[in-house]
Amino acid sequence: MLAFYEQRPEKLFIGEMTRFPYPAHIHDTAELVVPTRGSVVLGIDEARWRLFPGDAAMIFPLVPHSYEELSEDAEGLVAIFPPDIIPEYAGTFHGLLPEKPVLSAQEAGEEVRLAAARLQRFNMKDDLPMCIAYLHVLLAGVLHRLTFRPVYNTGEGDIGDRIIRYISDHAFEDISLESAARGLGISASHLSHFFSGRMHTSFRHFINTIRITRARLMMRDPKLTLTWICDACGFTSMRTFRRAFQREFGCLPSEHILALRSKVPVNRENQEE
What is the mean pLDDT of each run of 10 residues along the chain (273 residues)? Predict the structure, then answer.
């Protein structure tokens, strides 16, 4: 599963499940999905799972996942949270992965369904303590019913977590596979294998998806030119920017920005040179 890195504006989200397909992505937070109506097909790593009301999917940090199919009446709860939000379970998210990331409604139990239904009645703005309390109940019901297998661990925490954090912090700089490996204290071949083996992508493609995600957000600002955005996102030339953007979205940055700003007068400086 080829995934892009999603830089979320918030580390904690507890609310309604998306009602639309969403492409394969990863983030450094965990994600819990519990449908309460209809059905949803989730892609998790290399497998596809169809979930019905009361089923639960536990997606660990840095695991590629997507929302592939949703029935017209699909509804449900999604909780996206930092692994250490509830200290009792923080260790589970480091150095382990579920053998099977999905529980059927029967396996999950009635308390998971009830906790998800109750959480749908709250909102984070007004009821944050209650949201976290019910998230605790959900994690207790789900994590204790999953079985886990170990993943590679450096003894200093999950190497994957260190890699993603480092790359995210330096993605807009002049970074290469070799310089990133030096900064992380690992070999370039080890770093390359991490991306190809665990992330199912290349180091360079991963960097470009982070940069393009930021570029697409910047394109919403009519005051920013494409030349400025290209430089701010770490691309060494407009040609490289064009090529990476077209490979990802099938159109040029200038075409995308015109579509975004269709209701805003577009200056010539906003066009590619």
Answer: 67 90 86 96 93 96 90 95 89 86 95 91 90 93 91 55 82 92 92 83 86 83 90 93 88 87 48 40
What pLDDT score does 125 carry? 87
Give the helix/strand (H/E) hosting 163. Answer: helix 159-170
The three-class DSSP label of residue 226 is helix
**Tokens for 223?**
């005051």
* Three-state SS at 121: coil
* Euclidean distance between CA atoms 187 and 109, whole angstroms: 45
| Tokens at 15, concatenated | 């609310």
CB 51 within 8 A of CB 75: no
**Fold match between 4-150 and 159-270?**
no
DSSP states of 17-77 as a string? PPSS-EEEEE-SSEEEEEEEES-EEEEETTEEEEE-TT-EEEE-TT--EEEEEE-TT-EEE
**What is the CATH class of 159-270?**
mainly alpha
Q: What is the pLDDT of residues 227-270, one digit of tens each?
A: 999 999 999 999 999 999 998 888 999 998 888 767 544 443 44
22-26/65-70 β-pairing: antiparallel
Q: Where are the domains of the chain?
A: 4-150, 159-270
Q: How many CB atoms lie within 10 A of CB 54?
A: 22
55-66 burial, b for 16+ CB within 10 Å, e for fewer? bbbbbbbbbbbb
Q: Which CATH superfamily is domain 4-150 in?
A: Regulatory protein AraC (2.60.120.280)
d(CA 219, CA 191): 31
